[in-house]
Design brief:
The structure is a homotetramer. The first copy, chain A, is an alpha/beta fold. Chain A folds into 2 domains: about 1-125, 3-Layer(aba) Sandwich (Rossmann fold); about 150-310, Dihydrodipicolinate Reductase, domain 2 (2-Layer Sandwich). Chain A is about 30% helix and about 20% strand. Chain A has helices spanning about 10-20, 40-45, 60-70, 80-90, 105-115, 130-140, 150-165, 195, 210-220, 255-265, 280-285, 310-325; strands at about 1-5, 25-35, 40, 55-60, 70-75, 95, 130, 145, 175-180, 200-205, 230-235, 240-250, 275, 290-300, 300-310. In chain A, the strands form 2 sheets. In chain A, strands 3-4-2-1-5-6-8-7 form an 8-stranded mixed beta sheet, sandwiched between helices. A 7-stranded mixed beta sheet of chain A has the order 10-11-9-12-15-14-13. In chain A, β5, α4 and β6 form a beta-alpha-beta unit. The interface of A and D includes residues 180, 204, 280 and 283 of A.
C-alpha cells in the first residue's frame, strides 16, 4: 500500500481523484490537505463521499505531508502548486501535479501565458509530461509528473499519431473544443451561475487560452516542424466532458479509412484509447478514463473528433494512470470500467 | 404615454420587465436606476437588450427618479426597497414594488420572517397586494402595489377558489413547489454554480421560507378560518418556471369534475388563468403571463397542479398587469401572447 | 465465480447492471440476452461499454440461458419478465427480477394496476421483495428476488422506520416524488423528446402510478394498519436521481431531532443509508447505491426528504446488493464507492 | 390585414411562427393546415397557445387554402413542401417556404444532397433566397421566398461581408456550428431522447449535411471564386440557439479591429445584426430575431463567432421579416424586442 496525500481536495478534480483512490487496491489515502479549512470532514465539502472516505481536510505543512505520504497529488491552482511542489520534492516524495505549473518546458513561455514568473523553473527540465499514451517510458521513472490539461489531452491524442505518420501538415491546424462547465472549477462566477450557463453556449479565451501553448508543445514533439495551432474552447451546458473537432490539411491524398487505420495502429495496445466506427459522443466516455476517436476526410481536408471526460481522462483518471505507471501496477488499476 | 422608471434593473426580474415595457404602447422607459453602477449601458449588463433599449443604468436619487417618472417599478431587495419607496411615494409617483416589503400586512409577521424591523410599517395598511385575479378592485385605485411572490402566486391561484367555495379544509394543506433557478436571482452562489445545480434536485427552506406567511395571508382571506400551510420549495435544474403540487382535504365527497368546474367558474373571465384538461406542464406557460391549473381527486384527497413562469406571472408580468390596472388599459396590454 | 446472464441488457438498467457486474470480483457475465437483436456487440448498443465488455447480445432460449448462468438478472418489461422467469426457475437458476412482476403479493392487485392477468401467480408467494434494508433475512434464502421499484425504494426507506416506531400515523401520507428522465426507460416518446422534457417540469400518473400499491404494501408491513398513500411522481429535467418529499402526521409531539434519531438508529449498521444533517440533494447520491435521508418537523407536521440514484439504488445497484446477499458476499461488493 | 395560412403548424417552427403572427398588427391567421390531423384544436398540439390562438388544425386542399389566405407559410418537410407550393402558387397566393426546397438554385445539386429529384425544378429560377440582410431587394418583389436554413443564416451573415470586402480567402473556410436540439424537429428519435441528448455533445452529418451546399451557394455570391466550405454541425444539450465558429485565412494582414469595422459597416443600417465588443453568446439572442457577431484575428488566422436563435432568426423570425418585406411594412414589425 502506498500512502498518498491529496492537496487541494475540495475541488472537482480532487473529488474525482478521491473516488478513484478509494477503490484503488494499492493506495491508502493518508491526508487531505486544504489551505482554507481547519479539520472539516471531507463529506461536508463533498457530500457524495459520505460513508466512503472518513478523513478531515487538514491545513498541513510540506513536512507534515511528507511524513504522511510517499506520493502526493497536487490539485492546487497554478503558481501555488509549484511553490508547494518545490518544498515537497526535496523531502523525498513523488509528486503528481495536476496544475499547469510543470507542463510547459520553457519558463519564458510559461511566464508569457500565465503572466507571472515561474516559481520553480529549474525543475521544468526534470518534470515529465504525464500523457501516458505519448510519453509512457519517461513517466515510469519520473519523480515529478506534470499531469496534462484536459483540452490538450483531447487534442494531442487526436492529432499526434497523424502528425507522426506525416499524414497531416503542421499548419494550419484548427482545434475547436467544447467542454462541460466543471472544467472551469468549483468557484462560483457570474458567467457560470446556473441561469447564465444553462441554455447557453459560448466561445471563450479565443486566441488566449493557456492550453494553446501546451497543445503546441506536445504536437511539436510529433512533428518535423514546430506546430502553432488555432485553439478555440467553448462552454457547453453540461457538467462533464470534452469534444474536440480538429481540422488539418493532409500532406497527400488520404482516405477516411487510412486516417482511422493510422490511429488504430498507433493505439492498438492502449486500454483507454479507442477508434470507433461511429462518430464518438461525450456520453460514450463520461465517467471513464477513455478517449474515443474518429477521423474523416471532408472535401479534401482532414477532421478528427475526440471525446474524453474532462475530470477523468482529462485530470484525475490520468493522474491515477500516472500513479499506476510510477509504481508499476497495471495501468487500468482502479480505472476500469 | 406614462413615463416609467425601473429601480434595480440589472437583475432577472428587471430584464423581463424591460422587455415587456419595451413593447408596451403606453409606457415610456425614462430611467434605469442601479445603486451599484455609474452610467453603464443597459446592454452591457443585459446583452439581450442590444438594439432594444438604449439607456444607461444611472445612480439616481429619489427626487431625480420622481422628476423622470410617474410610475416606478422597484426590483430592489427587501428592506432596501421599502426605504426607497418611503422616499418616492411622498413625491407623488405610483409605485409597483416587486420586493417582498409591502406584501405582509402585519409588521410583526414581517419582522419574524425577514429578521429585521420593517422600514416603513405605516404604509402596510395602504399597500395593495397585487394579485389581480384575487384583488383586482383594490389594485385599480392603489398608489402602492405590492407585487406578489412567485410561489405565493402559483399556490394562491390554485387553492383560493376551492377554499372560497368551501370545498377544501383550511388544514392540513401541503404545497410542494418546484422552481427554476432564476427564482434565486442573479447573484452567483455556490449551490447555484452550474455544475452544482445541474443534474441535481433539492428541497430548501423547509419550514422557513419567507413565502410561507405570504401564502397563509392570501389563503386566509378566502377561508372562514386562518390557514397555515406546509410549504416546501424545491430547486429544479431549469432556468424558468414553477410547478406547485397542492394537497388538501375535501370538506365533502367532491369529484375531479366538480373541482375543475369550480376553478373554471372562478376564472371564467380571466385572460391569464386557464384550467386545462391535461395536467399542465411548466413549458405550457414559460415566457407567458399565464397560469394553468388542473385539479384531481386522489384516494379521497384533493390535488391541484399549478404552473406559472416565475419571472413573468410570478414577477414582471404581474407587475405589468398591475400597471395596466392602475392606468385603466386592457389588462393584456404588452402581455400577450 | 458465479456465471450470470442479463436479459434485456439494451436498456438503461441493463447498462448500469453491466457496469457493476464488470467490476464484481465474483461475477462472470456469461450471456447478454435480447429478444430483438441477433448477435449485436453490446458496445454497439451501449458505446460506453467499449473495451469494457466484449460480448454480443444474443436471442437465447430459457434452456440456453440456464446452461450458461447460475444467476439471471431480468430487465425485461413486466409480463414478459414473469413469462421468462416462469420458464427459467424450474431449470434451477436463481433469478433477480428487475421488472415489477413479483413485487405485489396479491395477483388481484397486480391485475388491477397492470391491467392484465398475472402470468405466474403461484410464485408471488415465494418471491421475496428485494429491499435489503427492510427484508434482508428473507432475501438471503430466496430463489426469486423481486427487485423493488425506484420510487418505492425512496419512499419506503424514508417512512418505514417512522411507521414502525409509531411516530407517524398511517394516514394521510403524501409522497411527492421527483425523478430524472432515465426512469422512463430508453424508448423515445414524444414527451421525453429532448426539447419537450428540457426546461420543463411536470406531474404525471397522478393517482394512477403503478408504484402506488407497491409503496402501500411495504409501508403496511411496518404499520399496525394498512397504509394507502397519496403518491405523485414528477419528471425532472435531469437524467438520473429521485428525490421524494414525504409528508405525514405525527402520532405525538415529535421533534426534528427525535425523528432523525429514530432514522439513524434504524439504519445504524447499514452501509448504504445515511441520515444527513443538511438536507440531502440528488447529486449527493448520484452514481452510487446510497440513500440519504433527513427528517424535519414543520408546523406540527412531519416531513422526510429522501434521495437515491434511480438506476443504482433504485434498480441495478439494489440488484447487485441482492446478488451479494444471495451468495453471502459482503453487501458492498462492487457497489462502493 | 393580410390573411395568412400556416401549413405544417404542428412542429416547432410552426409554433414560433404562430406566436409571432399572433402579435403582428397586419396579419390575420386564417388557416392552420396539417396533413395528419382532423380539426384538432391547435392548443391541444401546442398547449403554450392556450388562450392565444383558437383555431383548429385542418386538412385542407390547396384550393381551400388559397381561398382562405393571400400569403402562405409552408413548414412542411422538403419534397412535400415543393409539391404543395407547386399547387398553391398558380392559385395566386404568395408563398414563404420554410423548407429547403427552393433554396438551392441548381436542381442537380438539390438531387445530389437531398437524394430525390426536385418536385418543382422550373420555379428554382424565380424563387428568391430569403436572407434579407443579403438579398433584400430581390425579396421585396418576390412571389416565392425560400426561407434560409438555420446554419446557413448564421454562417452567411458572419462571412459574406468579409468575402465581399476581399479580406478573407474563399478557401479554406471551416464552419464549426453548434445547435440546440429543437433544430432537429419535433419527431422523437433515439439520439434525441432526453437521457441520450442531455449531458452529451456530438458532431453529426460530418461532410454530408444538406446545409453545406446552401452555405456554398450564398458565400459564392459574395466571392470572386466559388466557395466550398468545410461545415461541421454539432448537437448541444439545450433547446434553442446556434453558435457558429468560422475560421478563414486573411488575404492580407488584417487586424481584429479592421475585421469588426468591416462587419459593422456592412450591417450599420440593419436592425437585427449587431457586431458586439464582447464575444456573443447564444443567450444574448435567444427568443429574438437578432444575430450577434464578433471577429478576431488569431495567430494570423481569422475567426468569426456568430449567434442566432435557430427557430427565430434561423426560421420563423426570418419568415416574418420576409413577410414584412413582401408587403412593405417596417421590417421589425412583430419582431421586436
Amino acid at each position: 500500500m502506498i500512502r498518498t496525500a491529496i492537496i487541494g481536495a475540495s475541488g472537482y478534480t480532487g473529488l474525482e481523484l478521491l473516488k478513484l483512490l478509494a477503490r484503488h487496491p494499492h493506495a491508502q489515502i493518508s491526508a487531505l490537505v486544504s489551505r482554507q479549512t481547519e479539520r472539516t470532514p471531507i463529506s461536508t465539502v463533498h457530500p457524495s463521499l459520505t460513508g466512503v472516505i472518513d478523513l478531515p481536510l487538514e491545513n498541513l505543512t510540506p513536512v507534515q505531508i511528507a511524513e504522511r505520504a510517499e506520493c502526493v497529488f497536487s490539485c492546487l491552482p497554478h503558481a501555488a502548486s509549484a511553490e508547494m511542489c518545490a518544498q515537497l520534492l526535496p523531502l523525498g516524495v513523488k509528486v503528481i501535479d495536476l496544475s499547469a505549473d510543470y507542463r510547459l518546458r520553457d519558463a519564458d513561455v510559461y511566464q508569457q501565458w500565465y503572466a507571472h514568473k515561474h516559481p520553480d523553473p529549474t525543475r521544468l527540465k526534470t518534470a515529465v509530461y504525464g500523457l501516458p499514451e505519448l510519453y509512457r517510458e519517461q513517466i515510469r521513472g519520473a519523480t515529478l509528473v506534470a499531469n496534462p490539461g484536459c483540452y490538450p489531452t483531447s487534442a494531442a491524442l487526436a492529432l499526434a499519431p497523424l502528425l507522426k505518420a506525416g499524414m497531416i501538415a503542421p499548419e494550419p491546424i484548427v482545434i475547436d473544443s467544447k467542454s462541460g462547465v466543471s472544467g472551469a472549477g468549483r468557484d462560483p462566477k457570474p458567467h457560470l451561475h446556473y441561469p447564465e450557463a444553462n441554455e447557453n453556449f459560448s466561445a471563450y479565451g479565443v486566441g488566449s487560452h493557456r492550453h494553446m501553448p501546451e497543445i503546441d508543445q506536445t504536437l511539436s514533439d510529433f512533428s518535423p516542424q514546430p506546430v502553432a495551432v488555432v485553439f478555440t474552447p467553448h462552454l457547453v451546458p453540461m457538467t462533464r466532458g470534452i469534444l474536440s473537432t480538429c481540422y488539418a490539411e493532409p500532406t497527400r491524398d488520404v482516405s477516411t479509412d487510412e486516417l482511422n487505420a493510422t490511429l488504430r495502429k498507433f493505439y492498438e495496445h492502449e486500454p483507454f484509447v479507442h477508434v470507433t466506427d461511429q462518430l464518438p459522443t461525450v456520453r460514450d466516455v463520461a465517467y471513464t478514463n477513455r478517449c474515443h476517436l474518429a477521423a474523416r476526410r471532408v472535401r479534401g481536408h482532414v477532421l478528427v473528433v475526440s471525446v474524453i471526460d474532462n475530470l477523468i481522462k482529462g485530470a484525475a483518471g490520468a493522474a491515477v494512470q500516472n500513479f499506476n505507471l510510477l509504481y508499476g501496477w497495471p495501468e487500468t488499476t482502479a480505472l476500469s470500467p
